[in-house]
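Person: Please comment on this record:
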Amino acid sequence: MTAVESTALTRALPSPCAPVAGAAELTAFATVSTSRLHGRTTPRALVRAVLLAGLVLAFAVTCSREGLPTDRVVLLGWVIAGLAAYAATDGLHRVGRLLVDWLPLAVVLLAYDASRGLADELGATVHVTEPAAADRWLAGGALPTAVLQQHWVADWWQALAALVYSSHFVVTPLVLGLLWVRNRARWGQYARLVVGLSAAGLVTYVLYPAAPPWLAAKDGVIEPVQRLSGVGWEVLGLPRAGALLADSQGQVNQVAAVPSLHTAFAVLTCLVLYPVATRLWQRAALVAYPVVMALVLVWSGEHYVVDTLLGAVYAAGVVAVAARALPVLTAVAGSIAARRRPAVVPGVSG
């Protein structure tokens, strides 16, 4: 990470040492910590644990029967249900805060999903040859996707690739949920970055629709390339999960390849969590995640190398823009608040 990127990230996100926002969070944390120190569990903690355990069990059963959910509506529903179970034990005020925080975000992300499905129907020319040519230039003439598919055929890799690819649908909602519980200030920053990155990707899909490798191969533009992002579920003994993934993939924009938002969100997760990671293995995992994600995307025929590089650039760009915009927005909000405050008339002494 360069000095410029480090500065931008520091300005865009709160300090790792920033306190957890809100008295309710502090009270809940103190209660749990005290109960653990005394070797006992409070009734509130017990009820919360039972609710969360039941929800986790329901999610596990659903995944075993129907596969890992990839629909944003379903995933947001699971995350909000988990947060509701967590917040319910703190009273109605915490549930109300949950709704106020999450409903606007859910509406924005659902609107993005609906708009993305229409982006390929606006009549723009679909770019097929340019991304492939860029990859050949980067690789010295060979097509990286074709080369990887010829040599990487091990079952363990297919299983790992399926898990990494599908993690895209889970990691961002999960990180949002954890940050909301632990630090609402950082949650707010991350939520704005998620919305900004989604919007930037959507605008690009409209202006520059591009075919992924598997689609270009299907049209005979490049050498034979298969779509392999779901084949690992068969190796894992969950063929229905692979079938559901294929079905969901068929319902979205097929020419939304540039940039790779799978890569972009993996990079964004790394940029957001790296400053607060306290252990070496945590930081190593955060750095490795976008790298492995990009490798999986190229191997599986979902994206070209250039798509993944642009995804990383988009993530870094959104963080940099947020770093510059945050002070301006803060100043504007302060100015508006100052204007709304009633003027104080000094007393007249006589």
